[in-house]
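TL;DR need structure tokens for one chain.
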Amino acid sequence: MKRLISLALVFVLLASSFAFAAEASEPVKAEGEKTFQEVYLDGGKVDLGAYLINQRNYVKLRDVAALLTATDAKFNVGFENKKVVITTGETYEKLDTDLVELPEGKVEALMGEQAFVFNGEEKMVKTALINQNNYLQLRELGELIGFGVHYNKETRNIELSSKLEEKAEEAKDEMKDEKAEEKKEEAKTEEAKEVVDQEEQALLDEEAGWEYGADIEKIFGFIDDYHKGMNNADYKLASDALFTLLNNRLDDKVIQNDINQLESFASKIGADIFKKDFKARGMAINFGNRIEISREYDYGNNSLVRIEYNIRGTNAVVRNTAIKRLTDKSFESLNEKDSAHFKLIDDLYEPYINNDVKKFESIISKAMTLEEGRTAELLASGQKRYKEVKIDPKNVVKKVRYIEQSVDGVKYTIVYRYANKTYTTMSIMDYKDGYNFIANIHEVVKSK
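>> reply
TL;DR here they are.
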């Protein structure tokens, strides 16, 4: 068996304006996107906007209050002593800002907990704050207020029921099924994590292929189905694969958007993707707080697509990236901006491997401002890792350059390969939130 062990030199040097990890008590930022699922109330279609955040539908509290105000499940919303007050059975007076169509595109949400007063009793409720409005998970809000929430797997629609007398048994069954599914997903996640732990992060070996646990192999299969669906515009196949991976049925429009987005990524970096002939390979990495299982599709023209399935706790997300592997000819024809990024990485390599803090800082300061003392700490850590895996980083036998385009921005990467199956990977990310720098050291270990 061959395994690629990722050693723990993974660091990010951020522009000084970028905020580092917040306190645990502070809200956590997340990205949401308007969902395309249709919503029905008591059998009739209604306009209720929702954002998909961490694979859950979040709805504006006042929108739901306005929607249910003429039903048995009506409730009123107020605000007293800096707390949201919910009173069931009271009529809610609709505002002009309620039930307004949500704008297209992505939004930033602050995820946290708020103190709600529910029928006189204080409760802590998970919320997403978007544009100064409280959004709650639709199913949790249904449990709190007492209306039914059902996902129709056949139609892919969300069905709401305001009949309180019909809701009790339905909710009980729904929750039972939901909890059972959650336990299954948690068990699968833990099992996958255990497999990766036991295999010491079994990863890609380009010459010999893969060995991995059965659960990870199944995930590879679903990622392959998702890719095949995108590659052939088979929306149902792609959607079914994502439903299995994310436990959330997506509209065909979402899959079409994935395809258009990936084609746009590829166009920006000159990659030629979605051909019929390609080679697939994959990797599974345990980062401690998350598991990343990915597949890379090489179309034989130095153009690649990488699909990553990231698991963090019980949440999961799929991420698509278009990649262009640069030949000597294509590297020479790069524009000035792209060439400058690769030159910066190459210039940083020598002071990085020689632990020359002063020179490293003088070079990287041209692109970003570093936290004081951070460079010395990280370069020293790099020296330690090189010694642990017996790497002589001066003996580079090959360099491979990549340009990667994803929803975050452009990533420029150089992989420095050594004779003993070891690697240093250095990247500059030109992302929306500023420039980042990452270095990884890897070792390929062979065993039978």
